[in-house]
């Protein structure tokens, strides 16, 4: 469902894949009866951090509390495709744009 690139303050970056089980747990434990549809309509960092923490905890990638996770980690919300574009080397077969174009 969601893939997060997690950057701890001290340590190596790792990837967390949140599944439907993690989103289901988030729905059941979030005040205000939020749903997956609500998350898609109005995404926010609080909910993404909760889902990422749930997935990391389930996968035993992080065993601390949500508060500790929030204080010690940054999460990258870009999609895999967006990350590939950002990380990609320039195509040497394409001419660079000139300022005269």
UniProtKB/TrEMBL annotation:
Residues 72-101 are annotated as: Disordered. It comes from the Bacteria. Residues 92-101 have a biased composition (Polar residues). This is Uncharacterized protein.
């Amino acid at each position: 469902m969601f893939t997060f690139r997690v950057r701890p303050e001290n340590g190596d970056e790792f990837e967390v894949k949140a599944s439907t089980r993690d989103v289901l747990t988030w729905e059941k434990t979030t005040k205000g009866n939020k749903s997956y549809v609500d998350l898609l309509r109005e995404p926010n960092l609080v909910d993404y951090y909760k889902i990422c923490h749930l997935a990391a905890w389930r996968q035993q990638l992080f065993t601390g509390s949500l508060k500790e996770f929030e204080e010690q980690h940054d999460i990258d919300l870009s999609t895999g495709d967006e990350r590939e574009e950002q990380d990609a080397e320039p195509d040497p077969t394409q001419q660079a744009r000139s300022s005269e174009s």
